[in-house]
């Protein structure tokens, strides 16, 4: 088809190096994690955090995120794992595929919370720095779905229809070869990239802290997944209230995001002055000699790395901003 989106050959989904097999899907996920870590580190250090704190958090968040992703997938595809004669060890065979972003968010949040407590960083400060980076990471990770011939929607005659190999595991039974499908992986990637840009713009304009930016991330991602899942071909997914599991959970996530934005805004109408837990701030204060953010005369680290002169915002007496160690935001 002249205008169809091709998918990579199925034999390209893994690289074999002697006894070692590297799945290309995993490489896409690793690329997304690396991008998120880099962008989050830049954003967080500009607010005064140490230059290596995000790596420490990632070492906790990623493993628990993988565990959470697997648990969520199994619980929302019970007919794939629990039936007469089933091998229950399939539940833990994560290398055979089957992970879910919502489960990874839950597991990753637990890991990040633990790591933030150990590092003395406010959890919600980290979450706000992470929010746009998460959308970028999720957009990159969807490339793995394209590579694996999965995450596609109903048949379509649109010029950007996606080619899927009839031998692919997710190819619908009884569908004619050559049928084109909605490229849901691409729809979601574009949705996420637009959302990342929107969150960055809103953050610069309104200084959204105390978890409010992460709340907006939940709303944006939840709304996007809710309608995209309605187009998805996933015959083994469980349903709740007549909706695919991921659509139902997406709606809940969006509603929780709205609640988080409103409640945290009411609890903390003041400007966030420090990313550190009270009492865990570094002893030293001052500007970054390498050109990072500076600490203002009022004790606040300026948001764009310049001296904040006479803004009139009174700092919280309990906190002072720490020196930043990075340059301008991506």
UniProtKB/TrEMBL annotation:
EC number(s) given by UniProt: 2.5.1.145
Membrane topology per record: Multi-pass membrane protein
Protein name, as recorded: Phosphatidylglycerol--prolipoprotein diacylglyceryl transferase
Transmembrane segments annotated in the record for this chain: 20-41, 53-74, 94-116, 123-141, 180-202, 214-233, 245-263
GO MF term list: glycosyltransferase activity
Pathway listed: Protein modification; lipoprotein biosynthesis (diacylglyceryl transfer)
Pfam families: LGT (PF01790)
Gene: lgt
Region: Disordered, residue numbers: 272-330
Compositional bias segments (type: Basic and acidic residues): 301-320
């Amino acid at each position: 088809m002249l205008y169809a989106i091709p998918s990579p050959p199925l034999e390209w989904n893994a690289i074999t190096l002697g006894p070692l097999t590297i799945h290309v899907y995993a490489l896409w996920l690793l690329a997304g994690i690396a991008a998120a870590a880099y962008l989050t580190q830049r954003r967080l250090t500009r607010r005064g955090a140490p230059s290596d704190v995000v790596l420490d958090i990632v070492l906790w968040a990623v493993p628990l995120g993988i565990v959470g992703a697997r648990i969520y997938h199994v619980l929302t595809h019970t007919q794939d794992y629990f039936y007469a004669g089933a091998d229950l060890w399939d539940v833990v065979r994560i290398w055979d595929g089957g992970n879910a972003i919502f489960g990874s968010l839950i597991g990753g949040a637990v890991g990040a919370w633990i790591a933030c407590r150990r590092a003395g960083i406010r959890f919600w400060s980290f979450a706000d720095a992470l929010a746009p980076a998460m959308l970028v990471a999720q957009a990159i990770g969807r490339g793995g779905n394209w590579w694996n011939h999965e995450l596609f929607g109903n048949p379509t005659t649109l010029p950007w229809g996606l080619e899927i190999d009839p031998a692919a595991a997710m190819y619908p039974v009884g569908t004619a070869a050559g049928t084109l499908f909605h490229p849901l992986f691409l729809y979601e990637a574009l949705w996420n990239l637009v959302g990342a840009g929107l969150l960055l713009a809103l953050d610069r304009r309104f200084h959204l802290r105390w978890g409010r930016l992460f709340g907006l991330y939940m709303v944006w991602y939840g709304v996007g997944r809710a309608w995209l899942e309605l187009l998805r071909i996933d015959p083994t997914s469980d349903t709740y209230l007549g909706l695919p599991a991921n659509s139902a959970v997406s709606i809940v996530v969006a509603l929780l995001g709205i609640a988080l934005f409103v409640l945290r805004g009411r609890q903390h109408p003041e400007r966030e002055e420090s990313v550190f837990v009270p009492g865990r701030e570094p002893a030293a204060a001052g500007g970054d000699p390498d050109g990072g953010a500076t600490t203002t005369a009022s004790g606040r680290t300026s948001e764009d790395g310049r001296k904040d002169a006479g803004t009139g915002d009174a700092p919280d007496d309990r906190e002072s901003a720490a020196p930043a160690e990075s340059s301008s935001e991506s």
